[in-house]
Amino acid sequence: EFLYHFAALAKMEQTFIMIKPDGVQRNLVGEIIGRFEKKGFTLKGLKLITVDSDFAERHYADLSAKPFFNGLVEYIVSGPVVAMVWEGKNVVATGRKIIGATNPAESAPGTIRGDYAVDIGRNVIHGSDAVESARKEIALWFPEGIAEWRSSAHHWIYE
Ligand code: IDP
Ligand code: MG
C-alpha cells in the first residue's frame, strides 16, 4: 500500500499558472482559480505580485526575439498578477487545455481564453508549456518555496 501511494505521488506534476494583469483587472481571479480547483488539482503556491520589466523579461526570455516582446513585457508589468503553482497528474498538459490556445480567436469555448478573451495580446492567463519550463518558472516566481500539504480529497480524485 505504501509503495502504491508512493508511485502515485511520484507521478505528480507541478505547473506554473499566472493570471495576467487583464485577468486581475477584469475580476476573473475567482473564476480562474475555481476551474483548477474544481478539476481536482491542488493549489501549492499563490501570491498577488507586481513584477518589473527585468523580471518579466526573464520569465519570457525565450521570446526575446519576437516582434511582440516589448509589448508583452509592458503588458505583464502593467498591474498585479496572480502567480500560482498547481499540482496533479498531468497538470502541465491538462492546464494548457483548460487555458486554451494562445490566440483567443482559436481557443475553444469552454476554455479560459475561449470564454474570457478576445485579443492575443490580452489573453488573461499564462501556463507552463512543459514539465521542464514549469520547473524553471516555479523556481523563478517562488524562490521562497511553496506549500507542503496534501489534500484530504486526494483519495476521492485518484484511484
Ligand atoms: P502561450 O502563452 O500560449 O504559451 P507563447 O507563444 O508562449 O503563448 O506567448 C506568450 C504570450 O505572448 C502569449 O500568451 C501572448 O500574451 C503573447 N503573444 C504571443 N503571440 C503574440 C502575438 O502574435 N502578438 C501579441 N502577443 C502575442
Ligand atoms: Mg508560452
Automatic annotation (TrEMBL):
Q: Where is the active site?
A: H126
Q: Which residues form the Nucleoside diphosphate kinase-like domain?
A: 12-148
**What top-level branch of life does the organism fall under?**
Eukaryota
Which residues participate in ATP binding? K20, F68, R96, T102, R113, N123
Family note: Belongs to the NDK family. Belongs to the 'GDXG' lipolytic enzyme family.
Q: What does this protein do?
A: Major role in the synthesis of nucleoside triphosphates other than ATP. The ATP gamma phosphate is transferred to the NDP beta phosphate via a ping-pong mechanism, using a phosphorylated active-site intermediate.
Protein name as it appears in the record: nucleoside-diphosphate kinase
**From what organism does this protein derive?**
Salvia splendens (Scarlet sage)
Q: Note the residue range shown relative to the complete protein.
A: 524 to 682 of 682
